[in-house]
Amino acid sequence: MSFEPMLNAGGWPLVLLIAVALAGVLAWSGYWLLRADADPGSKWTWGRRVALAIVTVLILSGPSVPVTETRPMSNIEIYLVVDRTGSMAAEDWAGGPNNGGGTRLDGVRQDLTAIRDAFPAARFSIIALDSAAARELPLTADTDAVTSWINSLQQEPTAKSSGSSLERALPQLTQDLKSSSENTPEAARLVYILSDGEATDDGVGASEAKAAGVSWSQLSAVIDGGAVLGYGTSEGAQMREFEVGQTPDPDEPKYITEPGTSQPAVSVPDTKELQTVASDMGLPYFQRTGGSDDVPTKDFTDVNVQEVFSDGRERSNRYTYFTWPLGLAAALLLIWELAALVRADRAAAHVTRPAGDADPPGGAAGAPGGSAPGVAGAVGAAAAPGSGGSMPIPVAAVPGGGVPGAVVPGAAVPGGVVPRGAVPGAVVPGGAVPGGAVPGGAVPGYGGSRGVPGSGAPMGGVR
């Protein structure tokens, strides 16, 4: 079990910030909920919220277990470095469409197709090499895209050619392989270099690679296979000219000439350079001419996937989050919290019900207009005499009966004693409350509890 934060954007710092914020809120609420005079249920409330905060932080921390997976063919990455300089248009490919009049690029297309067919579920990336090197197809499992690129492969336009070498592709290839080894270390990486090896840039590419600190030998640590495929015969051949928008005439092709002359130039493959590159990378080297002495394509495409993965490499940065038990605990705590809030809201509504709200039938009348237990009909409120009708006389329930809308001189109050606070601030009409009106009771609301003497007490006098 390990912890991998689920918040990729902030990681551990953001998780810690959330934990500190929750701790501060809990400390502040605990000051009020854990006081000695707090409600007994407050401790449960605070404990429940502490548990919910802890569960939240644990979920964000990402409890997880690393996963080791069986690698399918889709975990094979194939990097193709394709030379399309003018020399690849030399006519020394015996297996071309014209039965001997094909170019080296015809051989490249055939071998690219064989590599594609040998790894139908792999991902492909293509780096095209001419006067410069560029990744023309990023890693993709779309074989249709690979096929389309192969079919459209043409040599570099002759007018734009300014010399090239294999080393010009080295910085881009190194960058791609390094990125792959860091992001998908569990993948197998195969590299195929298809070129005639001829350098025509006067060492510029080699100097740039040296300045960048990259070399072919460095790549041997991050690749698992592939091959260096060379094209052309030892005698070499003339190179066809190519311009964008022009359709070459196969019967009368134009040829690249030697600088300063009208004589066709001859390209001879640099097999020594190709062998050196293959040796530095730890890859096999095959020279391809399209003749009967060529090895079959399966010799460089038959890769034992299980053997490639037998080094025990594991799929890193892959985890299965184990958060469902914490999620269940959080859900239960939230249900508990919501239930407690509902109970608290109902209790608060009962205590703070405003005067004038009607009680259910048979309940106590808490305000003017309500029903009094034991008395049929409504209990109203009357204005105090002499008040101009501006001061209502509140009425409350009396056990066993009810208080009329106004106290009438000489009228007995059913049920005996009027409870304290039942008629707050009421004015007694007629100036006196008969002795039998409130037997032994007290009339609250007159500056405290006052005794009620017999009849005849003057209005406003002592009762």
Automatic annotation (TrEMBL):
Q: Name one Pfam family in it.
A: VWA_2
The UniProt entry, under Gene3D superfamilies, shows:
von Willebrand factor, type A domain
Q: Where is the VWFA domain?
A: 77-281
List where the protein spans the membrane: 12-34, 46-65, 321-342
Which UniProt keyword terms apply here?
A: Membrane, Transmembrane, Transmembrane helix
InterPro entries found in the cross-reference section = VWF_A, vWFA_dom_sf
Q: What is this protein called?
A: von Willebrand factor type A domain protein
Organism equals Actinomyces massiliensis F0489
